[in-house]
Request: fold
Amino acid sequence: MKKSIGLDLDGTLLDSKFRHQKLLYDILMQEGFEININELNDFLPYKSQGKNTKEYLLYKYRNIKNPDKIVEKWIENIENLEYLNLDFLYNHANNLLKDLNTICDLYLVTARKNKENTLKQLNNLDIIRYFKKIYIVSNSGDIALNKYKKTKNLGIDLIIGDTEIDLKWSQYLNVEFFAVNYGFRDVKWWKNKNIISYDESSIGKKIEEIIFKL
Reply:
């Protein structure tokens, strides 16, 4: 009997880091900041430690007067196609999906607010064919719970993800969790949680080892 895997999208299969940085840069420029985009190269490394955008702004610009306004604009625009088109698949993603698809049923579960733009992006990336089902859940409230509600009856055996949301999702389902450390949480963050995490070079082999032990 085939095993079933639930996969996260952003930070797990999709490198969306530049999208986050570019949008923040555009908003700051609109707000009158005179900066170079490279000055924000520490934005995602900072967030990978478990921080959020507002915390970064207060850390980076200690006298900033309107962080909430900037965060609100960022949330409003992060899923515009103009910015989604900046995303790209991680180098290993296509081969990983192709290999896993031959031995498992794959379910993609992502938290987004714009379903139409998400489906357009997935179609452009040409990865829809790998998934038995795609679920786009609300990105508000308890996101892990939102993911759980969509997948609780699918018989999922393993969750692959890059943040504590995916870890919590796996805990709701009471299944194995496979953490990756190249997305929105780094190896140090996972280590502090006493969780082994994997990089792009080791993910494929390790996942197959886990699958065959399930």
The first strand starts at residue 3 and ends at 7. Residues 17-84 form one domain. The mean pLDDT is 95. The chain has two domains: 3-15+87-213, 17-84.
